[in-house]
Amino acid sequence: MVTKKAQYRIQQMVFMIVALLFFFILVGIFIVGYQFRSVKVNFADLQKEQAISFLDVMRSMPEFGYSSQDSSSKDLCLDLDKIEVISSRISNFSDLLPVASIEVIKGGGTRITCPKENCNSYLIYNAQQDDIEKYETSICLCRKLSENSYAYDRCDMGKLIVGVKK
User: Fold this and answer.
1) pTM, 2 dp
2) How far apart are the first and last CA of the chain?
């Protein structure tokens, strides 16, 4: 009778240890799941911040920046001639750029994608991704023109649109 009681207590203890182990495994799974969801949200926020900061970085890049004698007024302007050249020769920038797409739109009105006559939309980079969230900022687009042997700067308003994968 004593051995049956001892066996019964051992079985109870084993059952409790297994139940506690199962409980802690379930708690661990919920904690890992919560952390994984948190990582996904943090990754999306990081991509959004990266796209917004890239808007400012691109405006100050010498590859796109406009330079003139009066550089103080043209610090954050993009050179429209450089944009036209880069957009006409779309390359694979995927290793260099942390974004999914870059587009520059000059002025308002109907969007006509270049290379067409009187175009106003320049696609600089597109990674051909489906699920893209776009961010935009206003920019100044300048180019140097000459008329009657007089050179001058012509600046227009535009939009710089950067897309990141959702």
Assistant:
1) 0.66
2) 68
